[in-house]
Structures are given as structure tokens and as C-alpha cells.
Amino acid sequence: MTVVGLGSMGSALAGAFLAAGHPTTVWNRTASKADSLVARGASRAGTADEAVRASPLTIACLTTYEDTRAALEPASLTGRALVTLNSGSPAGARRMAEWATSRGARFLDGAVKNIPSAVGAPDTLLYYSGDKAVFDEHVDTLRVLGGDTVHLGDEADLAALYEIAVGGTLLPALVGFFQGAAALRSRGLEAETLLPYATKWFEMIISVLPMYAKEIDSRDYSDPAASVDIFHAGAVADLELAEEGVDVDWQRPMHDLVRRAAEAGHGDRSIAVLTELLSRP
User: Fold this and answer.
1) What is the C-alpha to C-alpha distance for residues 257 and 17, in angstroms, rounded to an integer?
2) Strand order in the sheet with 81-85
3) Taking a C-beta distance cutoff of 8 angstroms, is the pair 4, 31 a contact?
4) Alpha-carbon span 139 to 130, nearest angstrom
5) Beta-carbon contacts of residue 66 (< 8 Å; ≥ 6 apart)
6) Could you count the other beta carbons within 10 Å of the beta carbon of residue 228?
7) Residue 25: CB partners within 8 Å, gap ≥ 6?
8) Which of 38, 103, 46, 109 has the alpha carbon at shortest distance from 76?
9) Long-range CB contacts for residues 197-203, cutoff 8 Å, separation at least 24
10) From residue 248, how far is each of 145, 170, 175, 230, 239 by CA, in Å?
């Protein structure tokens, strides 16, 4: 097993392999980042090529696909299984797959759907796409990184597609929480007091996702639990939060999307109809 890229996530991946008893070779451009892993039993490669040659399976965990290609450019990939676990777009994943296979690699792209400290846990989700034969051959090894390990399909960009589709919810949700914390702080209240109510709210959101997915898949928005008009009317109150000393400008594009839906005649339809506005022909 080889891990290339030893940031916080890459180090967690290598650490999980070591904890499971897998012989693990590591490489990073800044060699000192491997020190703690070497102390735990990892082998330090001197070059990226040496790292790839050390194992039949290489996990590359760098920031972007471009970083991965740059790091592995000197390496011989012929016949090697290469798994990329980095951020990027579906188009970037397709370019990465073309580059890797043109150099003789057997390629999987993947995503870790949790934070570094959760790597190795039985409920941690990782999903992969690309060469199914590579996944089947190494699935027991890959499952060391997280017990919920899934192959999405043979198309190399599917993991990146799902990663960006799911990840699109993260920043709006976090900024919404941060805005709430800022509002409470303006009144001298602690952000911690928001937790029980925010947690219930997120649980409610989770509970309605299957309903919205059904509406979207059927394209039937005629029986709304919450209509576009309800959200449109609530925009005024949302923006009035500015009077409490909170910057609400980040919400304006979302309210503009709701306004366009109302103006297009969707006011009495489910808020899930926004999917139609977000879908380009």
C-alpha cells in the first residue's frame, strides 16, 4: 500500500492502513510530513516513482487533480492501480482518468465523506467510481478507510459528480449556522445555546429530503408541503435580520432564485421546483 500526499487527510489514510497492519509506503514533497508515520512503521519513499513502485495500489490524496498529476508526473504508472482522493469537478475527474489510463494505470476516483479523524470508522462513507475490477480487487483494503465503502459505477467521474452534488449543501448550511451564531452574539448569547435547536432543524431537513427527491424525480410539484410563495414571503423577515447587526447579503442570490420562481408562475408549487430553474436545458 502506498499513500502519496500527507496532509491531514492523507496522513489519516496512511495511519488507518498502519493501524490495520498493512505494510505502507508514504511519500510527500515535504519529506518531514512523513516523520510521524515512519515512526509508526511506514516506509518512506525517496521519490514519487519509488513510492508507486513499492505497492500495487497507490492512494493519491492531494488538494486537486492538477496537484496529483504534477506529483505523479515522474512516476511509472504502468500496470499500477491508482486511486485519487482529492477535491475537483467531474470534468477534472475525467481529465485525470484520461491522463492516468494513458500512462498505463488502472484508475479509480473517490471521495472521503467525512473529516480526517473519522477515517477508519465503521460508519465512515467513501465512494469510488471507475475501473470496477480495481475496486473488486482491493475492496477489503479500501474498506480499512471506512466501513461504508461503495462503488458508484464504471464512469470515472461519478464519484466527483456525487461529491460536488452532496458538497453543495455544506457551505450554505454552515453559513446559515454562522449567521445564527452572529445574531445570537449580537444579543450577548453564546453560540452553544443554538445547538439543540439547530440540530433539530437539521434533522427535520433530513426527514423531508426523500419527499423532495420524489417530487424532483417525478417532476410533480403540485402538492407542496412548503410552497415557493411561503419562502418568497419569508424573504423579508430573513433580510430584516440585518437590523440586528448581521450581514445577510449572502442570502440575496437565494432569495432572487425564489423570486424568479414565483414570477415564473410557480408560487403555489413545492419549493423543490427550484430544481427546474437550476437545470440548464
Assistant:
1) 46
2) 43-44, 25-27, 2-4, 57-60, 81-85, 106-112, 125-130, 148-151
3) no
4) 13
5) 92
6) 27
7) 1, 2, 3, 42, 43, 44, 45, 51, 54, 55
8) 103
9) 202/173
10) 39, 18, 10, 19, 6
Residue 229 has which C-alpha cell? 410563495
- pLDDT digits over 251-277, tens only? 999 999 999 999 999 999 999 999 999
The Cα angle at residue 115 between residues 253 and 62, in degrees rounded to 5? 90
Task: For residues 267 and 225, give the distance between their C-alpha atoms in angstroms, rounded to a whole number.
Answer: 13
How far is the C-alpha of 145 from the C-alpha of 140, rounded, in Å?
A: 10
Cell output for 32: 518531514
Helix 158-167, helix 90-102: angle, nearest 10 = 160
Q: Residue 203's Cα: distance from chain center in Å?
A: 20
Q: What is the pTM of this model?
A: 0.89
> Could you tell me the three cell numbers for 50?
519509488
The 3-state secondary structure of the chain reads: CEEECCCHHHHHHHHHHHHCCCCCEEECCCHHHHHHHHHCCCEECCCHHHHHHCCCEEEECCCCHHHHHHHHCCCCCCCCEEEEECCCCHHHHHHHHHHHHHCCCEEEEEEECCCHHHCCCCCCEEEEEECHHHHHHHHHHHHHHCCEEEECCCCCCHHHHHHHHHHCCHHHHHHHHHHHHHHHHCCCCCHHHHHHHHHHHHHHHHHHHHHHHHHHHHCCCCCCCCEHHHHHHHHHHHHHHHHHCCCCHHHHHHHHHHHHHHHHHHCCCEHHHHHHHHCCC
Task: Decide: residue 21, CB within 10 A, 0-12 exposed, 13-18 middle, 19+ buried.
Answer: exposed
C-beta of residue 91 within 8 angstroms of C-beta of residue 157: yes
Query: pLDDT of 58-98, one tens digit each?
Result: 999 999 999 999 999 999 999 999 999 998 999 999 999 99
